[in-house]
Design goal:
homodimer; about 450 residues; alpha+beta; 6-stranded antiparallel sheet; 5-stranded mixed beta barrel; 10 helices; 30 strands; about 35% strand
């Protein structure tokens, strides 16, 4: 099966564990069967591979998520990178062009588009596989577009609804309804309506034909090169609303939209993660501590506490979905980020100094760069590697110190997993103060 | 007036803002009239000086608190240091011997002993002054021991009670009652009983006479030198229980024992301190953030949240008095401490590396020392100073780096307020791994 996984999201709703670099689908708070922590994207990827070991998966995402996706899913995963943010239609077209032009998928082959972050059981991906069959050339009754309709469990005002023509497992779609109020939703459900889970299948040629009518491109490479020139247009507007021949397949298995701390806590395997003590009077509370200082909790009722180097959230679970405006007021850059080369964690910010812990993966290196307005000092803490300072390469070991005054070109190369403490010193410390250079060696 | 301020306390009950170095009386969460934050000990000292600018104050405390007391009250404050922990009687005798032998206080002069951490209004220290007069040679009816009896506001089971002979402002004491249950307490109060606030006055010669009968010493210097040899004995057992002639003076002004987060929150001037956002649904909650990452709070009801480099507390206010066993389970040394030379803050602890921020006060220096099992690196971040490395002195400026492999003798001297980041590297990083040397220059 060909599968496009849409990985978006701003990362505010699971703050402080998600941030503007790490969206909620990358937060490793779930557990697999072996008891190892995994993120939503790792869970979904694992479930897909279990349902179809030959699945042809492409993750459609923006530039900022690429490093995290490769760190979490491995270097072999296919990632289709949007050079900038457009809307869902250009993003899906780009991934379809990638499938056609890079992966050689034929025009009659079915493709399923699926969000990367539903919390589901294994029957969901069996259903996704069935959707690919329904949409494919083997089905004489195939619709142009086949949706997944999730059997509602309550009249939610948070989801869009699909009104099907009948109550058969697969039927034609009569209409779509945007998020209604609860009373209206109850009426829809009485008429057999289904939640729109954002999963849809089509034959690749169908979508590319629609794409060529509305966007200006020839193939994947030129679409990606000229992506910024494409219009912002949603898939619903560009395709679904104009298409008269849409089918829906019912799905009644487990499905949760874990977009807020409140819903995320429901699927966490443990009430606490990290250095946490809860007294015996705590009830229905979750505490996630990514800092290496302890958290003591006493008398919590229906609360979520989450701490990372970006900040600390203490919230009533019911209130936690209202976090967005508060996160927007928090100043500053993310203090933890996964990068293509490893990760960094900000340890301390003073008026004229910032201290950072850098972890480089073995075989990786920083870009070769300099800063205009700050000096930097690396203290190598563990691992073996090399520095290049103004073109001169030297080996480094734990305990070695590398001083880089402003203007000096520098990089660090890891020959094993390597950690360093970086002290930045200057009156104007700014992430934008970075000049990159070609690799010098 | 001669005043002995007893400054003890283990620092567990206001964790994580107090720790085994910084007791609760040093936590700067109150505010003075000028809007500046102050600690309990600073507030009490300020109130005493307002009540009696000539007050002869000696702070009786253990070694670990001396630096913090001098940092908070200034270098001129008299501190009588217990070389080790004994009980209250040896501690009070040591301070009395200090008053007699170091400060030249005469045997008939009255002395008042007072805990350093009551939250009181100014009338309290007017009452303390009155107690000194009542205990002094000018009062023909002076008792050997004069206590302060606090008018109870409710039948508390947390305090000891004094049963007076009558309801006059000053009367003789009939008996003492240890912490009763609430019902018994209500009965005591009906009979005119008072809370024992731990304040008492006597003539200096009276106490020294009792001291020489029970302890083996001649004067202050030899008592301090042989302090560890003295028996552990409480003031109540050694003096109060044996003394038939005790008076009590009623006090009806504001008096709070702010020993727990719950009571401390009542006297905090602001509901939040530090980088904190609370949403509009928070009620009766206090948040103190000493970290430089933000805290977002939503939907808190009757909660206290406190964060420092030692850890994070999230507690229902009513539960917060039960913190002790949880703090005892928290491993490790204090991660923030005031020292005679300034302060340190632990920024990061990794398996083979610890990163610390050091702040040296101008004109101060570290001890001259070395470590056997770890290398250290200083990056000077702000200020001017000098290092001495294996006997060689060099000036240092911001951006300078000083590497000190294991075994190398080193110190840092501040010629202005100076900050440095220290990275410690080694498999066995332990505060006990420190060899001190005589000053080399």
């Amino acid at each position: 099966m060909n599968l496009i996984l849409l990985s978006g999201g701003s990362g505010q709703r699971l703050w402080p564990l998600s941030n503007n670099i790490r969206s909620k689908q990358f937060v490793p708070l779930l557990k697999n069967d072996r008891g190892e922590h995994e993120s939503m994207v790792q869970r979904v990827y694992r479930q897909i591979m279990a349902a179809d070991p030959q699945a042809n998966i492409v993750v459609a995402t923006g530039k900022r998520q690429v490093s995290t996706i490769k760190n979490q899913l491995g270097d072999k995963v296919s990632v289709c990178v949007e050079p900038c943010r457009r809307d869902t239609f250009p993003a899906i077209v780009l991934a379809c062009a990638y499938l056609a032009d890079v992966k050689g998928v034929g025009p009659r082959e079915p493709v399923v588009v699926c969000p990367v972050d539903p919390y589901v059981d294994d029957s969901y991906f069996a259903a996704v596989r069935r959707m690919a069959e329904l949409a494919g050339p083997g089905n004489p009754n195939a619709a142009h577009l086949t949706l997944m309709g999730i059997e509602p469990t309550y009249p939610s005002a948070k989801f869009g609804y699909i009104i099907p023509a009948g109550k058969d497992p697969v039927s034609r779609v009569v209409s779509f309804k945007e998020k209604p109020d609860e009373q209206t939703a109850a009426g829809y459900i009485a008429r057999g309506a289904l939640w729109n889970g954002g999963v849809f299948a089509f034959q690749l040629g169908y979508l590319l034909k629609a794409a060529h009518k509305q966007l200006d491109f020839r193939h994947f490479a030129d679409l990606q090169a000229n992506y910024a020139l494409q219009k912002r247009i949603s898939f619903d507007y560009a395709v679904a609303e104009k298409e008269p021949d849409i089918a829906v397949m019912r799905y009644a298995g487990e499905w949760k939209d874990v977009g807020t701390w409140n819903t995320f806590c429901e699927v966490m395997s443990d009430p606490t993660i990290g250095k946490v003590q809860m007294d015996e009077t705590c009830r229905n509370s979750n505490v996630i501590n990514q800092l290496n200082i302890p958290i003591i909790c006493m008398g919590l009722q229906n609360m979520v506490v989450a701490a990372s180097s970006d900040g600390i959230l203490v919230s009533d679970k019911g209130r936690s979905s209202h976090i967005k405006p508060y996160v927007e007021q928090v100043e500053g850059e993310a203090r933890f980020a996964e990068k293509s080369w490893g990760s960094f964690t900000v340890l301390d910010v003073q008026p004229e100094a910032t201290t950072i812990r850098i972890a480089l993966n073995s075989g990786h290196r920083l870009t070769y760069h300099s800063h205009e307005h700050r000096d930097e000092v690396w203290t190598i803490v563990s691992g073996l590697g090399r520095t290049v300072i103004d073109g001169v390469e030297r080996p480094v070991h734990p305990g070695d110190v590398v001083a880089m005054p402003a203007g000096v070109r520098h990089t660090l190369i890891a020959d094993s997993p390597l950690q360093a403490v970086e002290v930045q010193i200057g009156a104007e410390i700014d992430v934008a103060d970075k000049q990159k250079y070609d690799w010098p060696l």
